[in-house]
Design a protein that fits this description.
105 residues, Rossmann fold, 4 helices
Length: 105
């Protein structure tokens, strides 16, 4: 896929509530003071814990198809027993190694 065919953003959401929130925000370009973006938003069937554990692997399979990726889940429902900052840092680090580089932030 060439850069011209690459979509701007892929969002992996832990559940349909998060999916609908993102879908409601993206069209509000004027209010958010952003340009229009081409995006794909998908809910992840395994909810928060699944996103925390498997989300990076799912996003890894999309390398080259999107300029940026976002993984969204609720820390409280994820089953993590470390701080949310460490979960976030660990996921970003794993995305860097998945060839997203700075596009994962």
């Amino acid at each position: 896929m060439t850069m011209a065919e690459t979509k701007d953003l892929f969002v992996l959401a832990a559940d349909r509530d998060i999916e609908q929130t993102v879908l409601g925000l993206l069209p509000r370009t004027h209010a958010l003071q952003i340009r229009q973006v081409t995006a794909e938003v998908k809910p992840f069937g395994r909810h928060d814990g699944g996103c925390r554990v498997e989300g990076v692997s799912v996003l890894r399979s999309l390398a080259g198809q999107f300029r940026h990726v976002i993984l969204i889940f609720d820390f409280d429902g994820s089953g993590a027993n470390v701080t949310s900052a460490l979960v976030s840092t660990g996921n970003v680090t794993r995305l860097h190694f998945a060839s997203f580089n700075d596009n994962s932030i």
